[in-house]
Amino acid sequence: MEIGQILGFWSVALMLTMTPGADWAVVINSSTKRSVAMPTIAGLASGYIAVVLAVSIGLASLLAANPIIFNVMAYAGAGYLAWLGSNAIFKSGAAISVENENASSVNRHFFKGFSLSTLNPMALLLLLVLLPQFTSKTGSWPMVYQLLLLGSLFVICVVFVYSAIALGAGKMINSKPRLGNLVQRLSGLVMIGLAIWLIAGHLISLF
After folding, report:
1. How do residues 90-103 score in pLDDT, each as one tens digit?
2. Angle between helix 143-175 and 34-56 (nearest 10)
3. Residue 41 near residue 206 (C-beta atoms within 8 A)
4. Which terminus of the chain has fewer Cβ atoms in its 10 Å neighbourhood, N or C?
């Protein structure tokens, strides 16, 4: 595996994580408090680690090839995204009290991020298709190690880019509370729109 392949994938991974989408909407919606944003980002990253592991050991290929499992993932992911979006819209003005920022709250936000990234069939297909393109069949490294290395680079990009987004959005939102409520509602609308787009795209692919 050559350094050029690694750098090439790193640049692609960076561009992907810097492209607005469902992850961005969730991160921005959780950016009002660091105690909320960091567990959410950790959950997203952990979910992508699970996806990378699935791709590396060949499990992702089996999941993608099974229409029943893939359909369940697609609908569950879209439904969960729509639920997160509706919560962001209708609870945007709700204050989070200090006493609620306990281990239970941290676990809830972690699970939110983890569920979003693992139930996203597009992320599964993207990594399933993208990772092998930057590997070398004639290299000295076994294929599974190459996939794990590239997947780790992707997860690192997720952590750094999403942390920067949360930090920037958090500062802006906290400095202007009214703007914060508007941003949270808009992020909720984006999540619902992406859920509809995901379901529509999946239904179209079936015909």
Report:
1. 765 544 444 445 55
2. 160
3. no
4. C
What span, in angstroms and rounded, lies between the C-alpha atoms of 54 and 207?
Answer: 28
Segments making up each domain of the chain, as ranges:
22-91+101-205
Residues 61, 51 contacting (CB under 8 angstroms): no
Query: What phi and psi values does residue 130 have, to the nearest 5 degrees?
Result: -75, -50
Q: Cα separation of 50 and 73, whole Å?
A: 14
- Rounded distance between C-alpha atoms, residue 190 and residue 129, angstroms: 26
The type of residue at 122 is M
Quick one: pLDDT at residue 97?
A: 42
> What is the value of pTM for the model shown?
0.76
- CA dist 182 and 173 (Å) reads 9
Residue 24 CB partners (closer than 8 Å, separation 6+): 162, 165, 190
> Are 22 and 116 within 8 A, CB to CB?
yes
